[in-house]
Amino acid sequence: MKKYIAILGLGILGLTFSSCEKEPSFDYPEGTVGISKVTTFPILTLKGDARIVLAKGTPYVDPGVTALEGTTALTPVVTGAPDVSKAGVYTVNYTATNKDGFPASITRKVVVYDTQPSAVANDFSGTYARNTNGLLSVWTKIAPGVYSVVNPGGADSDLTVIVFNATGNNISIPSQLASDGTLTSSSAESYDAVGGRYSWIIVNAGYGTASRTFIKQ
Length: 217
Known about the structure:
Radius of gyration: 30 Å
Order of helices and strands: HEEEEEEEEEHEEEEEEEE
Number of domains: 2
Shape: globular
Largest sheet: 8 strands, antiparallel
Helix content: 10-25%
């Protein structure tokens, strides 16, 4: 009986000490959680449009970005200014880095076109089906001789590129960073306006070297 009384006493004593233990403190120093440091990543927001289209020779005025670390304004680094004296698809990159050295980036496309009178009146916009699989490519005219084309390879993809029709019925995908960040262009292009069909080779690491033919729907 004494043995049980002794055990009971130790139990009560243990509960007493347990009840006296301090509750864990969550009052961490600002910028930390326990032993971990908290960082606030930069957030960049484009001012103006994500895509700017200019005729060759038109001055480019960069709309800029807003870059914040929480509520603190950051100064972004801007690279990739377009050369408005030369037709092409340019990527302007904005990068901001927080106080802990973590960067964040955002991009803007600048399209500089040089469309000749022989192509100004053309309108190749519409939906085209690839002749081998029926998958659709959609062309949208965004300026004289300039098109935004979704799925230019007739694959199961939403890849989007800029296409130029600079003269006559000539088409091309100028070298550019496409919507998925891959370097993309075209070769061996032809466009038959009467037959409503075109073909080209997509120059992209994921597309092989076969010519692809499309027919307007």
